[in-house]
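Bit of a strange request maybe. I'm writing a small parser for structure token strings and I need a real example to test against, not something I typed by hand. Could someone generate the tokens for this chain?
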Amino acid sequence: MTSLLYVECSPRKQRSASIEVAQSFLEAYREKHPGSTVQQMNLWNTDLPEFDEETMGAKYTGLSGGVRTFSQEAAWRRIEQLAKPFLAADNIVFAVPLWNFSIPYKLKHLIDLISQKDVLFNFDGTGFSGRLTGKKAAVIYARGLDYLSNSTSTPQAEYDFQRPYMEMWLNFIGISDISTIIVEKTLHGPEIDVQARADAKRKAAILAGEF
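Reply from user aminoacidic:
Good idea to test on real output. This should exercise your parser:
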């Protein structure tokens, strides 16, 4: 039995383009893969601890090969628990809106917490190696403006830190099989918004069948 982890990154549940497209993906995925389990991680309902002094101490104690204190060990177990769904899932799908040309701070918070040595990656004398090899990822990006056509107001090379960051991170933790769906111009009025979402939802349903 395969398993899918769905990471939802928008707080805007009723009007979110990324969530709407992701739901089309999940509906098609469940239909095409009836034996698969789907676990949802809603970042706005997930308790993300601060990367505080105890957690930082636990990190560097581990890196130096020392023995963690009781409080450091407790802090590190929180990190490992947050990372566990990513390690356990066969495949992962993200619904990611664009915030200030990048990803929402909740997603960055999660990434900062779980991207640790011996958690999501290994590090030795030969360098870094991700621990999530063999998994697939699909990322659904939503953007209010037009980036793909390199418009004069928001050219992709200068303004898009959303997709490059996600793909770099996924590759870093070992996932190289990455599929992308982008829904853009959701701020350009209802006509364009409806069509953009419909096109992305069709692509999502097709991708889910192949996932």
